Amino acid sequence: MTTLSIDDTQAGIESLKMRLKKLYPNDQHFFCLTPSEALKIAEEHSIDVAFVDIEMPEINGLELSRKLKQLNERINIIFVTAYMDYAYGALEMFASGYLLKPLQEKELIRAMKNLRYAPVKEETKLKVVCFGAFSVFFKGEPVYFKRTKTQELFAYLVYQHGTLCSMGELTAVLWGDKPLSKTTNAYLRQIIGSLRSTLASIGMEDAIIKEWNSIGVNVSVIECDYYDYLENKDSRKEKYTGEFMKQYSWAEGTFPG
User: Fold this and answer.
1) Where is pLDDT greater, at 135 or 230?
2) Is 115 helix (H, G, I), strand (E, B) or coil?
3) Which CATH number fits domain 2-113: 1.10.730.10, 3.30.360.10, 3.30.40.10, 3.40.50.2300?
């Protein structure tokens, strides 16, 4: 969920910031002091809930809310004000809530539990494609790996479907039957570090499970056509024919059809 808070006083912003970050620490929160800044943020991000002060010098909160709704008709507007005078205007705006200052935490929680529009849940899994060329996506965007061996390592771990793989096994897969040595072990650890760094950069560091001298993937955070195939999900088996991770020689002949 993504929230946007607009108040022309620093005290008002700090009050909202303290409570929102305490109650909803895993959500994304934006805070601003002017309506113009708020509109810019709303143009660049999909806002689920906007906390809007009504008495502001640039434009009042009712007019700002109209502009926000033009950008996103399903945005939830919650007015935060010291006055009851604007309650009728808030009703006309089909607001999700009307909170009086000083802000009470229990009233904030009640408003968030009774939003007019349910926030759209963000995609929280990696989407992995194994049939054809191996590729990885997150939130509709491709995930880029800094090294080709880093992507190949992740491809093999996905193929192993959560089974933990030893350093020796991974060395053999990535570099032919080259024995595990200080040099290959150091290089492999660099590749593993690169993989973990790439996943951490998109907030998916928990996609990797690492134990002593072994590593695997957390299948619970991965949506994968290969995994669907293994589970015969939605009777899709007939759709998966042809190449399987075609860029990797170790994948030849491994298609489970």
Assistant:
1) 135
2) coil
3) 3.40.50.2300
